[in-house]
Amino acid sequence: MIALGCDHGGYELLQKVMEHLDETGVAYKNFGTFDCQSVDYPDIAYPVATAVAAGECDKGILICGTGIGMSMAANKVHGIRAAVCSDHFSAKYTRLHNDANILCLGGRVLGDAFALELVDLFLNTPFEGGRHQTRIDKVHRIENAKENV
Ligand code: RB5
């Protein structure tokens, strides 16, 4: 199950992503927003990120104008590794090396067809593990450090 969310800057692209997931048989849960009215991206990033962090959804896709605000907000949730990607190499390697669990896209940055290719790479590329798991563990140790207030 893939958690989906967007603000008004990502609304149109998210509709394309949902059509694509429907066509490819990927199950998703859409956390909104549900129209083009202006909304604050943290209000969408938070429920998507918590659904992924809690294991209710396997991965997430968040779309705003640039993808950046969504990634900043999502990465505040413990256990989230959200990556903004605007190229194929990054979309592939953020799975292989970072085990990214949320893909953030810029609806005002990417063409639809290009973005859908990034979605497929993100959803279909496994994590390599090994030394990369050690590094991820260190990332989360920073997140959990007591002095990190
Ligand atoms: C909304 O105008 C825009 O700021 C938002 O979609 C996003 O790009 C923020 O990072």
Structure description:
With 149 residues, this protein is α/β, with parallel strands linked by helices. It has helices spanning 11-24, 41-53, 68-74, 88-96, 112-124, 131-144, and strands at residues 2-6, 28-30, 59-64, 82-84, 102-106. The chain has a single domain, classed as Ribose 5-phosphate Isomerase B, Chain: A (3-Layer(aba) Sandwich). The protein has six helices and five strands; from the N terminus they run βαβαβαβαβαα. Strands 2-1-3-5-4 form a five-stranded parallel beta sheet, with helices on both faces. The chain is globular. 39% of the residues are buried. The model has no long low-confidence stretch (mean pLDDT 97). The protein binds D-ribose (RB5).
